[in-house]
Amino acid sequence: MSIVLQGLEKAFGPSRVLQGVTETFDQARISVLLGPSGCGKTTTLRCIAGLERPSGGRIQIDGRTVYQERPAVWVAPERRNVSMMFQSYAIWPHMTVFDNVGLPLRAAGVDRRRIRQAVTATLELVGLDAYAARNATQLSGGQQQRVALARCIVSESPVILMDEPLSNLDARLRVAMRSEIRDLQKRLGRTILFVTHDQEEAMSLADTLYLYRNGSVVQKGAPKDVYDHPASGYAAEFLGRANLIGEFDWRSAGDASEVVLPGGAVLRTGLRERPAEGARLCIRPEKWRIVDADGPDVLRGRIEQASFVGDRTEYRVATDAGSMLAVQLDGELRQPGEQIGLAVRPGDIGIVRE
Ligand SMILES: Nc1ncnc2c1ncn2[C@@H]1O[C@H](COP(=O)(O)OP(=O)(O)OP(=O)(O)O)[C@@H](O)[C@H]1O
Ligand SMILES: [Mg+2]
What we know:
The protein is an alpha+beta fold. It is built from eight helices and 22 strands. Magnesium ion (MG) binds next to helix 1.
């Protein structure tokens, strides 16, 4: 059951919240929509679910057109066969946890014995089996979110839309639920559209990642591809962290090339072609290696800040080419004030537009 959006538009009054989204979300895969608050992620899901009427374009689910601007097509939400988990839970306060989770199955006319089995198994999955009889209002925020998650995955809809389903869980549970969602997806082969603004969650879950900006997709791909080859400064900074250097000279050097940074440091790069006007160099913080020796391919600097955070140390380094962030997984702990060099492999210097 793939979902196809063609030129999808949505305006609220004068503001165009979706600006012509054309994407195919593949069958039996996890597609993750990632982007900052207000960029149109929830609106996209609501349009697909039929809870929002788009202003233009077309939506197809499993080859069937469920919305089209002209000639007008509109399929009611309950006939779209999608299950949506809302950012705001939307669980029923007057029902028990068990009844809340069983709701979609009751609505679909599933028999009671199967409902009992499915709900029990799903509550176990989300760690709420002990709460089945409890009233849904007598739960913490994280527990309510798990009820909503259970209700979403218990249904047999082939398409599942999830809007920030893990945002209120504690860190440990969130990581556990991520792998449950992945397993579930493998076992049941559902098509999942998952919205988050947590980049780590996005990368760990996505088969394909769609990076949103102001109501359109600016980059998509496998998480590692997007991370390793961000097309813009926006993508580089939204997905991970990046050192972006706008001021540099480029020169060809045989098969390879070099960049000259402010202050005169020369770094070899794998860039074959002269970068376009306005392009910036992009170096991920974990690609910098701290070295003592001076020499070619080294950018000298002074450590301004060192933060040890357990599995890594993060250094803020002042250089003539600007302030750099360098993340080191091992090596001695260095102190602010130390003069050091930053080295990077030629292939780890990327280039981004704007
Ligand atoms: N019913 C509405 N009326 C007017 N404006 C709306 C309505 N719903 C959403 N918007 C606006 O549309 C834009 C996109 O909203 P949307 O909920 O899709 O963002 P989002 O990407 O899900 O953000 P978040 O990460 O904060 O949930 C926002 O600027 C929002 O204020
Ligand atoms: Mg939202």
